[in-house]
User: Which sequence fits this backbone?
């Protein structure tokens, strides 16, 4: 099916309603228009009609995106996330499907752990004596719209589709509504459903060029690039950096030992996607360990405040109930942090991400198991061995890849009773009289929020 025909099918009223139910209805972030999901759903029919007519005609206008800042740590600028309105979110979801369909043959989007697995294989073959690590400066904000649209036009002939994409990436991101804010001419907003796929499309031709270089093994995940080579590494670094700038207007960090870009023999220590490679062996980068430890401490801090609030309850029976509930929620969240989960057909979680470490690095997971119990005692949470999951066991379960195992939760096959119990545990009202569809939707919203926090444990430590 051509891009034009697929575009037309995605923006029918019936399909837009289906997309809303399956994706957008599970989100909760409010855009710059301050419309909640509940209010948007009251006018869903009219909104869908507007999207369908305006998008197909190439006249759809996006609202400004709401700014959300994500800390990247001390002495670093925060990452700017763009939050669209519910209407724009639905429009973008359909557009994302069009892009995936149109560029399916060109894109080879891998999970980062698959990229690391291929890197480990190349390192074990000992064919390449040198590595080159390149890091692009401000990748998403630096994407040139003219270059991107030129790449898109080779596969997307219909001007209405290109107009919709152009409008989506040109809309500014603001802390509050600002009509004086001009349209953006450079950069792709992060946080939109189309952001990642546009970034991949932008560098598909570069990937082909780099992979075709003589005597190299090339790896890229988003803006992190690693090249194993038999050639003189500094000269190759300059060649690749020049290509990125001349063809795509992307700058890389300058070469240097304390820079994010550097070269060296593969027997030296280097980092890639949150992993540390030393003498060709893969372990977890220390910063990645620290981040998951901080995540555990954050859960326990929440437990501490829940308990303090419960103890302020004068009714002793009510107090005991609230304390037991605080403990139950804390245990559930801690175990989810350890195990990760399967949700929407995707394996999520810290151990899944770092499943490519060598057996010699398992001491890091043993350390995390110990740390969890030490932190729990510090927060006055007494844990029995049978109550908590183990990072080490999760690692072995993940390596086996047994779909029938029960140690790692699969939220795609969870029973209705489990969903109801979880919602009641979190204090949702009227669960007993909710329909199965309502329970399923509320459950998915809750799990989506929790899994987004699992991703935060990984993202902060996955660079460099």
Assistant:
């Amino acid at each position: 099916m051509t891009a034009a025909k697929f575009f037309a099918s995605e923006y029918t009223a019936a399909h837009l309603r289906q997309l809303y139910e399956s994706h957008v209805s599970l989100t909760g972030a409010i855009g710059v228009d301050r419309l909640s999901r509940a209010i948007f759903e009251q006018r869903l029919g009219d909104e869908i009609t507007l999207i369908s007519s305006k998008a197909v005609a190439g006249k759809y206008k996006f609202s400004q995106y709401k700014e959300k800042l994500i800390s990247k740590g001390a002495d670093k600028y925060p990452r700017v996330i763009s939050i669209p309105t519910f209407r724009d979110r639905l429009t973008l979801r359909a557009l994302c499907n069009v892009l995936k369909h149109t560029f399916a043959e060109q894109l080879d989007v891998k999970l980062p752990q698959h990229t690391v697995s291929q890197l480990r294989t190349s390192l074990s073959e000992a064919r390449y004596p040198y590595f080159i690590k390149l890091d692009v400066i401000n990748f998403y904000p630096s994407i040139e719209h003219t270059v991107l649209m030129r790449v898109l036009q080779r596969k997307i002939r219909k001007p209405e589709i290109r107009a919709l994409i152009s409008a989506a990436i040109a809309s500014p991101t603001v802390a509050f509504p600002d009509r004086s804010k001009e349209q953006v001419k450079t950069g792709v907003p992060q946080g939109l459903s189309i952001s990642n796929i546009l970034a991949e499309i932008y560098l598909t031709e570069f990937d082909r060029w780099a992979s075709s270089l003589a005597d190299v093994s090339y790896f890229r995940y988003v803006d992190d690039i690693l090249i194993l080579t038999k050639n003189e590494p500094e000269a190759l670094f300059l060649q690749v950096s020049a290509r990125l700038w001349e063809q795509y207007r992307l700058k890389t960090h300058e070469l240097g030992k304390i820079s994010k870009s550097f070269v060296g023999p593969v027997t030296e220590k280097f980092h890639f996607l949150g992993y540390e490679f030393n003498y060709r062996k893969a372990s977890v980068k220390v910063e990645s360990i620290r981040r998951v430890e901080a995540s555990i401490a954050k859960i326990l801090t929440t437990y501490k405040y829940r308990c303090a609030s419960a103890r302020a309850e004068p009714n002793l029976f009510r107090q005991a109930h609230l304390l037991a509930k605080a403990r139950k929620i804390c245990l559930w969240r801690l175990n989810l942090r350890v195990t990760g989960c399967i949700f929407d057909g995707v394996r999520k979680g810290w151990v899944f991400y770092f499943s490519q470490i060598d057996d010699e690095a398992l001491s890091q997971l043993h350390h995390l198991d110990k740390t969890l119990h030490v932190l729990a005692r510090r927060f006055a949470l007494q844990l029995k061995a049978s109550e908590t999951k183990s990072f080490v066991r999760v690692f072995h379960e993940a390596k086996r890849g047994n779909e029938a195992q029960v140690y790692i939760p699969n939220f795609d096959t969870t029973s209705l009773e489990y969903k109801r119990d979880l919602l009641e545990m979190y204090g949702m009202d009227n669960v007993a009289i909710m329909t199965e569809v309502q329970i399923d939707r509320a459950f998915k919203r809750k799990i989506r929020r929790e899994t987004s926090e699992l991703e935060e444990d990984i993202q902060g430590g996955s660079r460099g």
User: Anything to note?
Assistant: Residues 286-311 form the longest helix (26 residues).
